[in-house]
Structure formats: structure tokens, C-alpha cells
Design a protein that fits this description.
The protein is an alpha/beta fold. The chain is 23% helix and 24% strand. A hairpin with a 2-residue loop joins β16 and β17.
Amino acid sequence: MPASLKHIDPDTPMGATLVAGGATFRCWAPHAKAVYVVGDFNHRIRNDAALLTRDQQGHWRGFFPGVKDRQRYMFYVVGEGSEGLKRDPYARELESPFPAECLIRRTDFPWHESGYVTPPFHEFVIYQLHVGTFFTPNLPHKGGTFLDVARKLPYLADLGVTALQLMPVQEFQTSFSLGYNGTDYFSPEMDFAVADAELPAYVAEVNKLLDAKGLRRYHAADLRGEMNQLKALVDLAHLHGLAVLLDVVYNHAGGEFGDQSLYFFDRQDPAGGQWNSLYFTDRGHAGGLVFDFSKPEVRDFLIQNAKFYLGEYRIDGFRYDQVSVIDHDGAPDGWRFCQDLTSTVHAQRPKTLHHAEYWDVNPFIITPPPVGAGFDTTLTDGLRIAIRDVIGSASAPDERPLHMTQLAQSLWPQGFSESWRFVQGPENHDIVYNGREARIARLGDPDHPRSWFARSRARVATGLSLTAPGIPMLFMGQEFLEDKQWSDDFVSHRDLLLYWAGLDQGDRQMLDHLRFTRELLALRRLLPALRGRGFRATHMHDQNRVLAFHRWVEGEGQDVMVILHLANFTRVGYQIGLPGEGAWREVFNSDVYENWVNAGVAGNNGRVLANPQPLHGFGYSAGLVLPANSILIFAR
């Protein structure tokens, strides 16, 4: 007799699910001849009692009594091309190391019900990090983990960002990775977890965070395994006022699949080509294969994955990798998948952020269905390209004109009606990866990335990103003047890890730049205009290397003026148009942060007076002191 169909109905979840008295199992293998479940609970014996029953939709399902939390299991699939073990594509957790077995897991976790609410989209400031290399206190024994990131949450909250964007954390099969070669979508990366034997010290560390807030502590059992450690990171982030975004890869999977992965899951004959692989097409991308969006079951697999992380992990949104690949290489069904995905996730959690990477930039990505794809925001590259151009050009040893006019045109990309719809920043994981482009500090002075030229230009680049329209994004280390490229390979490129030791040892230049970033983010929170929709570039002068723009709150005013100056000398009496008469406060001057507090600061002594002399489209203007390589902010 096959496994019982007790507790089985059309709504039985995919994968392994603990229920009263045991667990249900369900998988999709439409061309398989037989599917068995083998595990701790049946001594891994493949007999009739381990056999699942197929339904008309090609799903195999059954109930096994006596199954308990943390027991191991695998599917054994008999197909037309081969037979053998397969990991459950819906497995919540895997047992380290590879080749791994699946673990049955309870979904409970001792969340702290803090009442945290994901912030409105216009208040997002994103901090992008890679879990394996962000903070690595246990090298060379082990790379970074979820709980290592958790230990830095007070630092990140104090910095003033509002959301952490984790590069992909779904299971990949290599020793280290950027994360874009995932194969097991419901299981967090095993290498990002702390082993049971090493857990007590970590429990003590994260409990200090809870003690500081007067909250209930975790027990060691609460944090066993990668699943609960990722949940703990989300829980603790929320307690520190930080949203968590996951970077998910729904365009392709793999790179290295392995015989036990979801590749050729129902074990059809490989001679039939990649279309016989069940989940994939024959189109490759980034070393893997593009998903077959024509199949409802494939679309549902990915949509259920998003729902799973929203519900079970309480995350606050996603960054969707290369949606353009879904659209182009997944045609003609990829666009419809995007619409189905965004409609479903918005219905489940309306206030979560769904952020798409799409090249070239396409405003229809953030247009609602039935015309658009329905994402909330999209990554843009215009400001990144323009600011890197002017910073790089400024590093040349002359006074050549800079493309300030082009920079002004990049501040609000065409086709977007709301400023929070686009995400921008001068650095990200792709751009400053090892062997690609320089980080901003080195771009500002390639030969001496800690010189005054490098430091001051880096302040301008980051300052522009944090005051321009759009949701700003910082890449890990940008806030403290990290000048090295980065790599996910922390074994061969340990020299490229973030220089936390500099902060710990009191590196003056790093601490000054961190203060600059932190205090500018605080000012962004204080001035609604820097988060509002009102924007106009008012003055651009390529030869003088000056850019000025106006920010305001529509219907309220609360005017703010931002002025960038990238000449290597101070200008005095430079006339700038202002949107109102009388006193304007100089509320921010980046020159102050040069050897904080800069005793020789150039500036406007905290205020200027606007006179009724029309200029730059305004009825008023004032003569300003513009420090060399600086960003100034004025408010009423």
C-alpha cells in the first residue's frame, strides 16, 4: 500500500509540512514513474509504504505518521531517464555540508512582537550588504553569518539607514558566492549559519542586544539552524527600526546544479534537451538556466517562494534580480509572470517594497497591471554614471570643465512621476566588485585614495545621493570611506574585506567620513523636502563645476537648496538664486568634516541673506562662499 492520503487535500502545501501525528509531503514531478519519500522516520527504506500517490496534475503526495521536527528526508524519483535521490525544492532547511539532506522544520519562532511597521517608501534609505563578507570575525575558520550581521545592527541603526538589502541568501552549492547561483530557493544558505557547537557564544552576543532593549532573551534552541538564525536577524533588525529586503533571483537558477537538485527533477531523459529539465528552458543566463515561465507550476513555485519569505520570515520586501531577463529571455510569458507575482505579493502584504532591477531602465516596470509589471520601484543608473563621470574627471590634474549639466539631467530619470519610484547610488555590488570599477574614494584620487582630494570628492558623491530625488542606496563600507573593491571570495581575497579594524582603532579619516554620512542622514530625516517630490535643478555651470538644485514639499514649501562645487579652490561671492527673501540657514557644509571639526572651514558662517535680485528662475539671490570640493545645504 502507498503512503496514506490522510490530511491530504487540494490545498496541501508543497514540500514537507508537519501536521498532527506526522507530516504531509508533496512534490511536482509530472513525468516521473514513481516518487518515494525516504528519511529518518522510515529508516530510508524505499518500499510501497514510502511511495507517494500521483494526482491528475502531476503532483505526488502522501502522509507519513510519526515524523518529527529536524528529521531528515529526501525524495527518491524514478524517471524515464534515470532514478535517484532529489532534494525537496520546497525544503525549509538543509543539513550541512553538501551533498545535503532536507530537514523537516517547524515554522514557529519566538518573535518579539514589537509593532514594527515597514516605513513609507519615500523614507527608505537602503544599505546593501553581502552576508558572507560584511563582518567576518571568525576568519579564517568561517566567513560571515546572519548572526554576525545581527551584531552590527546597533551600528547600522545609528548610521541612519532604514533598510538592509541582503544579497541573495538562498542556498548555493559553492563555498562562497555573490548568491546569484542559487539552487534551493526555500532554504537559507548553510554557510551563513553558525553551527550548534559554536552557538552559545553567539547567543550571548545577540542577547546583549535584547538586554539593551529590556526584551526577552533567546535560548540556544531558538537559534539552531540557518532558518531560525535568519529569522533572528529579521527580528532583531525590526527591534532596531530597520527593514529587511531580500535579493531574489527569479530569472534563472543554478550554475552548479548537482544530480540531487531541482534540475531534471522528474528525471526525464537528458537527451531530450534542457526543456526536459522540468523547471527550465534551454536559454542560459549567468552560468545557469532561465526558468520556464510558460508553466503554471514554475510560476507558482517562484510566487510561493516570495509569499513564503513575506509570511514566515516577516521580511519587508524584495530586490528582484534582472527582471529584464525574465521579460526578454522568458518571453512571451515572463511579463505575465511579473504581473502575477506583484499582484499576489501586494495582496498579501500591501506595504512591503518590491524593487526591480531592469536594464535598460523601463518606467513600465513600475506601472500597475494590466499595462505594466506592477513593481513599486526600479534601479536606475543615470545618476550613478553621471556622478562617477564628474568625480573621475575631477581627479585629472587640471581645471577642465565637468559635465555638471549632464549630472543635473540625471537627477530625475525620464518617465517617473514620483521620486520614490527609483533607487540610485554611486556604488553597488556589481559596479565595485573585484576587477571592475573603483570605489568612489579611489575614483576621486586613483593614486592616493585617502588624500584630501579623495575624501572631499567622496563626500560630494555620497552627499549628492542622499539629497537627490529617489531612494538612496549605500553599498557596505561606503559610509566610512572604504576605498577597496570587494569580493565574495574571502579566502583568496581576504585583503578586500571591509576595514572594520580602522574604525575600531580610531582611524581619523574613516571616523570623520562616517560622521559625515551619519549626520547627513539625520538631516535627511529632519528636512521633509529631501524626501519629497518637489525638485528642480536651478543652476549648472560646467566650467565653474557648480550644480544647484531646489527641493521642496509640494503644497507646503519647506524649501531646501543644495549646492555642489567640485573646483579645487574656494569661490567667494558666487551668486546663487534662492526661492525666498531674507535669512537662509547653512544647515550642512561638508567642509566641516575635513579633520572634524575643521578649524579652517570655508563657508557662510551659518547663514546668508537673500536679496531681491532675480537669478536662476527665482526672485532672490545671495552671494555664497563655496568651499573646494563641497556640498552645501541651505534651509529657511
